[in-house]
Amino acid sequence: MHLYREFPPHPALAGNVACLWTSHAVPDGAPVRTRVLPDNCVDILWQDASPLGKVAGMMSRPHHVEMRAPVLTVAVRFLPGAVRAFVDVPLSELQDGHPALADLWPRAEAEALAAGLWERERTTAQRLAVIEQALLARLRTRGPARADALARAAVLRLEASGGAVRIDTLADGLGVTRQHLATLFRERVGLNAKTFAMVCRFRRAHAALRGRDAGVDWARLAGDCGYYDQSHLIHAFRQFADATPESFLQTAP
Questions:
Q1: How far, in Å, CA of 132 to CA of 195, rounded?
Q2: Where does the HTH araC/xylS-type domain lie (predicted)?
C-alpha cells in the first residue's frame, strides 16, 4: 500500500512552494516500488526512519525507490527556481543527489526541525505546520534577490512554452547574455536551461498520456509536445522514464 497526498502551502510561501506532501508506504508482503520522474522541482523530505531530513535535487533521470519497511514521509516541493531562498549552495551541486539537510542548513536548525516533527505524536496537519514555520523563519532572514526573480521568470517562460522556446531567445527576452543565463540556471535552478526545457517537453507528453490506455497516435503526440518525430519522443522517455512510451503507458499507475 502506498498513500500519497498533496497540500497547498501557507499563503506567504506560495511564491516559493508548489505544495507540501505526505507519503505512507506500508509493504504488504512485497516491497513498495516507486519510479520518481523528473519534474523540474527540488524537494526536502523528512522520514520517520531517517528523521534529520534530506534534499532531493533537480533530476535529469528517473529515480527508483524501494521500501521494504513502513515509511512515513512529510515533505515540501519547491517551485522551479525558488529554492535558493532556503539553501546557500549552487543548485547544480544537488543535481540527481540526495544530500542531508544538516549539510545545507546549520545542523542545530535541522535537528530542531526534526525534533519538532518526530519527538512526539503529531497529526499530519501539525507536522506540515512545523515545516511551514521553519521555512517562513528562513524566508524572513533573507531579503528578496533579483537573481531569484530572474530565475523564476526564466523557468516560467520555459514552462509556458512547453520547453519550446530557444535558449538564446529566452536570454534576449530577459535582457541577459546566454552566458549569464547559464550561470543563473546553474546557481538558482539546478539544471542547465537545455535540460530544463527537455524535462518540460517530457512532462507535457507525460501529462498527455494520463488516463490513456490505448489508441495513442504517437506521431501526433510527438508533434503536439514539441518533438521532431516519434523517435525523438521515444528517446525522451528512455532518458526520463527508463521506458519507451508504449511500455510506460502499460506500467503507469
A1: 30
A2: 148-251
Residues with Cβ within 8 Å of residue 60, at least 6 apart in sequence: 38, 95, 96, 191, 195, 199
Together in a domain, 75 and 108: yes
The answer to whether residues 105 and 164 belong to one domain is no
**How many C-beta atoms surround the C-beta of residue 74 within 10 A?**
24
Boundary-marking domain end, from 140, 156, 184: 140
Using alpha carbons only, give the angle 171, 172, 174 rounded to the nearest 5 degrees.
65
The last residue of a domain, from among 80, 109, 140: 140
**Count of structural domains, the chain:** 2
Per residue of the chain (253 residues), give pLDDT as tens.
778 999 999 999 999 999 999 999 887 878 878 899 999 999 999 998 777 899 999 999 999 988 877 889 999 999 998 998 899 899 999 999 999 999 999 999 999 999 999 988 899 999 999 999 999 999 888 766 677 889 999 999 999 999 999 999 999 999 999 999 999 999 999 999 999 999 999 999 999 988 777 788 999 999 999 999 999 999 999 999 999 999 888 876 5
CATH label of the domain that carries residue 203:
1.10.10.60
Asked if 8 and 130 sit in the same domain, the reply is yes
Whole-structure pTM value: 0.92
How far apart (Å, rounded) are the C-alpha atoms in residues 87 and 155? 19
Structural domain span for residue 212: 146-251
